[in-house]
Design brief:
The protein has 384 residues and is α/β, with parallel strands linked by helices. It is built from 16 helices and eight strands. The radius of gyration is 20 Å and the shape is globular. It binds fe (ii) ion (FE2).
C-alpha cells in the first residue's frame, strides 16, 4: 500500500521515452514544454564522453539557446546547487536538462526548483517537515548511468553544506529520456555501483512495509534484470542488450521505490557513505544480503519470491548469489575501506535520525537491533 494511505495507490512521476537513440528527440521534447532557453547540467565525465556536446548541438540546431554547467561534483549540497542555479537565472533559462548520473540529476532538479521558486534550498529540506512540493521549472532528465532512479523519483537527495548530512527535497522531472546508448561509456566501477544501487532500491522497495502489487511487480523484475545483466555490462560496457536491461531495471526500481520508500539498507548506506566518504551506490549496496536475511526471518513468503527471481530455492542461496555478484564487480570489503564493526555501529542513531524512511520495514527495528543488523552486514560481506 502507498505510504500514508490504506489503499494501494501507484504513481508514475513522468512520461519516459525509452530506447537506443532516444536522446535524438531532446529538442522536440524541450519545445513540447515551451522551452526556448535551456540550462544543460552535466559533469566532467559526461563532458569527456562527448555526450554533452551532442545534446547541446541537437538543441542549438533546433534554435534553442543553451547555457551549460559542466562540473557537477558527487553528492550535491544546497550551496553547490544554488551556485549553478545562478548561472541559469543569469542566462534567462526557462527549462533545465540534466544529463548524467544521480548527482547531476538531483542537482538539475534543484536548479529547476530555484528557477521557478527563487531563494535558498534549505527551507525545502524534508527534515523540516513534509511540506507540499513547490513549483519547479520544466525539467528533462537524461540518465547516463543505470542506478540512481532519480529520474523517476519525486525527491532530490541533497546534503546540507555545513555538516554534509544527507537530506531530500521534493522535485520531479517533467519528462525522462532513457537512452541505453548513453550508458555504454560508463567506467566499470560506475556500472558496478549503479547496478547494485538499483538492486538495493528494488530489494528494499520489495521488502518494505509499503509495498503494493504494482511496485512488487516492478521491483522483483528489477532485481531479476540486475542479477542477470550486471556481470555482462561490467565485463563488456558496449553490450547494448545488457545496458538496455540495466537502464530499464534502474527506471522500474525507481518507479517502485518512489511509491513505497526504502528502509534500513539505504538509511545505513546514506550515513555510511557520508561518514566514510564512500560512493552512494557502493555504500547502499552492502546491506542487500542482510535485507534478504531479515526478510527471510520476518516475511518468509516474500523471501521465497526473492529466491525465485535469483533462480534458486532458498533465501540463503539468494544471499550467496548477491555476495557473488558484489565480489565479481569488485565491491571492496569493509576492512579494505578501514571500517570496523564498532565504527559502523556508531553511526546507527544518526542513520535513523537522518533517514525518515528507516521505519518502513515489515516489522519495527530498535536501535540495538539495527546495530546487530549492521554487524551482520559487515561480517557477512567481509567473511565471504
Ligand atoms: Fe540508492
Amino acid at each position: 500500500m502507498a505510504m500514508g494511505s490504506k489503499f494501494s495507490e501507484f504513481n508514475q512521476i513522468a512520461p519516459v521515452s525509452f530506447g537506443v537513440g532516444a536522446v535524438s528527440e531532446i529538442a522536440d521534447k524541450v519545445k513540447m514544454f515551451g522551452g526556448s532557453s535551456a540550462m544543460l547540467v552535466y559533469d566532467g565525465g559526461v563532458k569527456a564522453s562527448g555526450m554533452a556536446d551532442r545534446v547541446k548541438g541537437l538543441l542549438e540546431e533546433a534554435g534553442i539557446a543553451v547555457a551549460c554547467f559542466d562540473d557537477v561534483k558527487p553528492d550535491p549540497t544546497d550551496a553547490s546547487c544554488e551556485a549553478i542555479a545562478e548561472i541559469a537565472v543569469a542566462a534567462g533559462c526557462d527549462i533545465v536538462v540534466g544529463l548524467g548520473g544521480g548527482s547531476v540529476l538531483d542537482t538539475s532538479k534543484m536548479v529547476a526548483l530555484i528557477l521557478k521558486t527563487p531563494g535558498p534550498i534549505a527551507p525545502h529540506f524534508l527534515t523540516n517537515g513534509l511540506n507540499p512540493p513547490v513549483p519547479i521549472a520544466p525539467l528533462i532528465l537524461i540518465p547516463t548511468t543505470s542506478g540512481s532512479g532519480s529520474e523517476l523519483s519525486c525527491v532530490a537527495v541533497v546534503s546540507h553544506h555545513e555538516d554534509h548530512a544527507k537530506d531530500a527535497v521534493f522535485a520531479s522531472a517533467s519528462f525522462v529520456i532513457l537512452d541505453p546508448e548513453l550508458t555504454v561509456t560508463g567506467p566499470k566501477h560506475v556500472t558496478a555501483f549503479a547496478g547494485l544501487d538499483a538492486m538495493a532500491h528494488a530489494m528494499e522497495s520489495f521488502t518494505s512495509a509499503s509495498a503494493d502489487p504494482m511496485s512488487m511487480l516492478l521491483s522483483l523484475e528489477a532485481i531479476r534484470l540486475v542479477a542477470e545483466n550486471l556481470r555482462r555490462a561490467y565485463d563488456d560496457g558496449t553490450d547494448i542488450e545488457a545496458r538496455s536491461n540495466l537502464s530499464f531495471a534502474s527506471a522500474i526500481a525507481g518507479m517502485a521505490f518512489n511509491n513505497t520508500g526504502l528502509h534500513f539498507g539505504h538509511s545505513f548506506g546514506h550515513e555510511l557513505g557520508g561518514a566514510f566518504n564512500l560512493p552512494h551506490g557502493m555504500a547502499s549496496s552492502y546491506a542487500i544480503p542482510t535485507v534478504i536475511k531479515f526478510t527471510a526471518k520476518n516475511d518468509p513468503a516474500r523471501a521465497a519470491q526473492i529466491a525465485k527471481v535469483f533462480g534458486v530455492d532458498t533465501p540463503e542461496e539468494a544471499v550467496k548469489a548477491v555476495l557473488d555478484l558484489q565480489k565479481y564487480v569488485g565491491i571492496k570489503k569493509f576492512s579494505e575501506n578501514g571500517i570496523t564493526v564498532e565504527a559502523a555501529q556508531a553511526i546507527a542513531e544518526d542513520a535513523i535520525a537522518h533517514n525518515v524512511f528507516f521505519h518502513n520495514t515489515v516489522v519495527p527495528i530498535s536501535v540495538d537491533e539495527f546495530k546487530e543488523l549492521i554487524a551482520d552486514i559487515i561480517t557477512t560481506y567481509d567473511a565471504y
